[in-house]
Request: fold
Amino acid sequence: MVLAVTPGLAADFLRTGSDVATQKATLTVVKSYGTAFLVAPGRLITNAHVVANHDGFAILNPVSGAQTPAHVLAVDANRDLALLAADVPGTPLKLAPPAEKMEPLERVYAIGFPDPEQYGFDRKLAAGWVNEVASENDPREASMTLAVRAGNSGSPVFSPDWEVLGVVNGGFVSPLLRDGVQSTSDPLASVIRLPDLRAFLQTNGVTPSTGATSGALSDVAPQLASAVFPVETF
Reply:
């Protein structure tokens, strides 16, 4: 649990006098949000940085707002992945085959909860393309032209067949050069790639879903919606 202490209180305790003994700290629980998705019954993936420095976790029902307690089973800070356990309904998402390779300019999609306190707790779909298979910022990650915000961390990234290709773990803005002139900056998302996600699951004894999700978005939308949740940390 992250607590915010009333400003100025620490300095007050350095004083002498009976008045200090009567002062009380005003403690506020600081909540933050990310995205998590089912990879197996009762097992969800999010980012390690989403759960870092917190000791309370809940999976939210984006419709009713009901909270389901969650606990962290494993964290890999190097890969920025965390495995959560929570008793939530839903059909786990299917990962792309191990041999699947991203290609530059491949169409991709992400589902998550960008800044839910401002934009609401309904699932948001972002569409873009693979920009770099190995990002200049971190060669282990891909960069994609997906507009993401705080709260998207942990969002699944999908191929056009709606199979998981990776996990969003950040966003940044990269200026583009057109005809040698810097243009308006474009939003990019950094994405943990499929091999790291599969290795993390294997290390922690999780067998990902093999269910079919291929088809038009209208056909697979109910399954996708049932497997992606906001995660609240406090």
